[in-house]
Design goal:
Its EC number is 2.8.2.-. Belongs to the sulfotransferase 1 family. Pfam families: Sulfotransfer_1. This protein is 60% helix and 5% strand. It is mainly alpha-helical. It has one domain: P-loop containing nucleotide triphosphate hydrolases (Rossmann fold), CATH 3.40.50.300. A two-stranded parallel ribbon has the order 1-2.
């Protein structure tokens, strides 16, 4: 199992834009309204912190590889190599480069009309890291940090996310 996790602040930011673009999902007039719903576990898919907590019990399983979105953005070649090794797949240098190119956010966004139709414009917005800084105020940032610590702070997944997000920022 490949478990891809992401900074909860960027998860919230992405889901805010996603839900406001998808009519079946609840939309929010303001970021503040969304933030309250996100933090009070009123998301259609549940609480991201609880999701991480549940997966944490499997983090040491030899059949589970955990990687962060931030790791893949920082060094996609190493990320693809590690994923291929985990699944026992050997890649030539050319195959590796092709996979890295085709799986880049820019490439997927460019091809999204072919692969996802009009839904592609909703799925592929920015693909960046730290976009949360454009929405969160200081109080929201502190509340998110506190919730992170309470739910997953000392866990293996929490430590991995904290390192990728806070130590490399």
């Amino acid at each position: 199992i490949l478990l891809l996790i992401r900074n909860p602040k960027d998860v919230a930011t992405s889901f805010y834009h996603f839900s406001n673009s998808m009519s079946p999902l609840p939309s929010y007039e303001t970021w503040d309204d969304f933030f309250i719903a996100f933090m009070s576990k009123k998301m259609p898919w549940g609480c991201y912190f609880e999701y991480l907590s549940k997966w944490n019990k499997y983090a040491d399983d030899e059949n589970v590889m955990t990687i962060t979105y931030e790791e893949l953005k920082e060094n996609p070649v190493l990320g693809v190599k590690n994923i291929a090794a985990f699944f026992g797949i050997s890649l030539t240098e050319k195959e590796l480069q092709t996979i890295v190119e085709r799986s880049s956010f820019q490439s997927m966004k460019k091809n999204s009309q072919k692969t996802h139709g009009t839904f592609g414009n909703i799925l592929f917005r920015k693909g960046g890291v730290s976009d949360w800084k454009n929405l969160f105020n200081e109080d929201q940032n502190e509340k998110m940090d506190k919730a992170f610590e309470e739910h997953v702070g000392g866990t293996k997944l929490g430590t991995k996310l904290k390192y990728e997000v806070y130590c490399k920022a």
